[in-house]
Amino acid sequence: MAKGRKNGCPTNIRDWQISILDREADGEDNWVCIRGLKTMTRSVDSETADGSAGTDLWEEPYVTKRSAVLKLSGKAVGCIATGETDPGQGLLDSYAKKAGCMADATLKFVDPYSHAMVADFIVASAEKEDDDTESSVSWELRQVGEAEELPYVPVQGIALEEDTLSLQVGGDKKTVKFSFVPENASNRRFRVQVSGKQVAAVSDITDSGFSVRALAEGTATIVVISLNGQKTASLTVNAEG
């Protein structure tokens, strides 16, 4: 796992993927990506008796029984179409409203090099501030126990639920689902590339899908590209007037 910066200094996490476990969802290990995050600050409350920092900050709270605090911050994001809060941010907010063990959330961290680990945290607080340009959000979490490093699982492919889509210009947009192969791949970061932007537009991108709207008659190609291994899946959009 990337160590980031020293104790108490923020780490730029724009190239990380941080997810929270949705315990109320059906099925096992339903991880929800927390979008909009920009920085992460890890700190422990004091030095060890001999004045050393000792071990990795993720492990120190368990080894030395000291208090460890994690602060996540970024911008408030959500679905433009519905106005709803980003699901990952929403889960953090819901834990912050609880108390004691009920506020115990499990987070998964994947750094830019695809090293992954999970750890439990008490979500102590959530804050939101508005200015003229955007809303900033932050959460304070207190680590519980020791972080667990996960084995690396490479991405083998990306599967789209369909490879051809027909839409009417000016009509409703259509949601297209996709998944990683295998589902437990370590690095599930991706980007969506559109060839023929005058024909089709992509919006409402989530961990498992995106929306497509037809803008003009013609054909467009939408490609989902993994950022680890350069695996791709293509969708052909036929737009009719």
What's the quick description here?
With about 240 residues, the protein is mainly beta. It has helices spanning about 60-65, 85-95; strands at about 10, 15-20, 30-35, 35-45, 70-75, 105-110, 115-130, 135-150, 155-160, 165-170, 175-180, 190-195, 200-205, 210-215, 220-225, 230-240.
Describe the model.
- The longest helix is centred in the middle third of the chain and has 10 residues.
- The strands form three sheets. An eight-stranded antiparallel sheet has the order 1-4-5-8-7-6-2-3.
- The chain folds into two domains: 141 residues, Factor Xa Inhibitor (Irregular), CATH 4.10.410; 84 residues, Immunoglobulin-like, CATH 2.60.40.1080.
- About 3% of the residues have low confidence.
- It has 241 residues and is mostly beta strands.
Beta-strand content: over 45%
Give the CATH class of the largest domain.
Answer: Few Secondary Structures
What is the molecular shape? globular
Could you say what the CATH architecture of the largest domain is?
A: Irregular
- Indicate the percent of residues in helices: under 10%
CATH topology of the largest domain: Factor Xa Inhibitor
pLDDT averaged residue by residue: 84
Order of helices and strands: EEEEHEHEEEEEEEEEEE
The biggest sheet amounts to: 8 strands, antiparallel
N-end to C-end Cα span: 51 Å
Tally of discrete structural domains: 2
* Unreliable segments of 5+ consecutive residues: 48-54
Radius of gyration, in angstroms, nearest whole number: 20 Å
Number of helices: 2
Main sheet: strand order: 1-4-5-8-7-6-2-3
In total, the number of strands is 16
